Design the sequence.
């Protein structure tokens, strides 16, 4: 449920959309409660034509591509786009020097460290965690290893070649007691995820998903931000910017706010007990809770 926030400072907030998804509609509703003068359009040129400086929010990958293709001059913040897709759109090597400070993002996926915090709480013991990575998600290896060291998790990583079947790659995760699925569209299409879940379920191997949708599909659990969390996070980012003069945006980052989703049926089937510690995990906006 979207909750109204206290009125923020007067700011020309422009929202670029593409398509009409339920998540984008919900985000717009939340932002309008915070910014009554919000302007929205599907055409970057129409938003750029507004008088005075402003901050433009690109909702989803298509809107981000559209904004960058149109070379919008406003400071641009991407939301509801995963870290992998954001990197693909702006370039695998990150932002060009001229773009730094003018383009930022709050990714749709939670940080690897957040997911491993959940893994550590779920199993509350030393565990060997398997992860499949493709070329497109190889950038996650370093933060995953850092988080694994932080939480005392043994990590088994398998890099999957483009022509290799992801399900067959599971056999190379030797000793893995659970699998962390990462938000990688080249590895986890709906069909592939279904096949992986069937294979891991037969082995009694829990799978940690990367979105609430993957939990509904049969993964054990995930840490994820709700649309309300994204709206609160985005509002704080925007309200923290200077009211006048040049706007220097922060580096693209993972969501600050998140909560946990559990598939209780899967937990019972796999014999995984869900503790109060797991249920109470999360980082919520001020004045809100799960």
Sequence:
């Amino acid at each position: 449920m979207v909750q109204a926030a206290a009125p923020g400072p007067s700011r020309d907030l422009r929202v670029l959309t593409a398509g009409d998804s339920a998540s984008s509609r919900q985000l717009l509703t939340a932002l309008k409660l915070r910014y009554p003068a919000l302007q929205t359009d599907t055409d970057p040129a129409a938003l750029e034509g507004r008088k005075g400086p402003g901050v433009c929010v690109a909702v989803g990958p298509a809107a981000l591509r559209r904004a960058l293709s149109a070379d919008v001059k406003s400071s641009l913040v991407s939301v509801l786009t995963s870290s992998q897709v954001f990197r693909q759109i702006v370039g695998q090597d990150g932002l060009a020097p001229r773009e730094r400070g003018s383009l930022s993002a709050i990714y749709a996926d939670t940080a690897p460290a957040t997911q491993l915090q959940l893994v550590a709480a779920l199993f509350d013991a030393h565990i060997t965690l398997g992860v499949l990575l493709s070329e497109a998600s190889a950038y996650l290896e370093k933060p995953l290893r850092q988080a694994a060291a932080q939480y005392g998790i043994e990590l088994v990583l398998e890099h999957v070649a483009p022509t290799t079947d992801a399900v067959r790659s599971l056999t190379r995760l030797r000793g893995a007691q659970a699998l962390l699925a990462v938000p990688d569209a080249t590895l986890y299409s709906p069909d592939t995820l279904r096949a992986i879940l069937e294979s891991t379920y037969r082995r009694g191997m829990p799978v940690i998903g990367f979105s609430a949708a993957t939990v509904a599909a049969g993964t054990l659990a995930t840490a994820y931000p709700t649309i309300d969390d994204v709206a609160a996070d985005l509002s704080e980012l925007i309200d923290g910017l200077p009211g006048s003069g040049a706007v220097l945006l922060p580096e693209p980052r993972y969501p600050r706010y998140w909560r946990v989703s559990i598939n209780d049926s899967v937990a019972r089937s796999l014999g995984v007990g869900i503790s109060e510690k797991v249920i109470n995990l999360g980082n919520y906006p001020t004045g809100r809770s799960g």
Remarks:
- The longest strand covers residues 128-133.
- The CA atoms of residues 64 and 70 lie 10 Å apart.
- The radius of gyration is 20 Å.
- Confidence is low (pLDDT under 50) at residues 1-10.
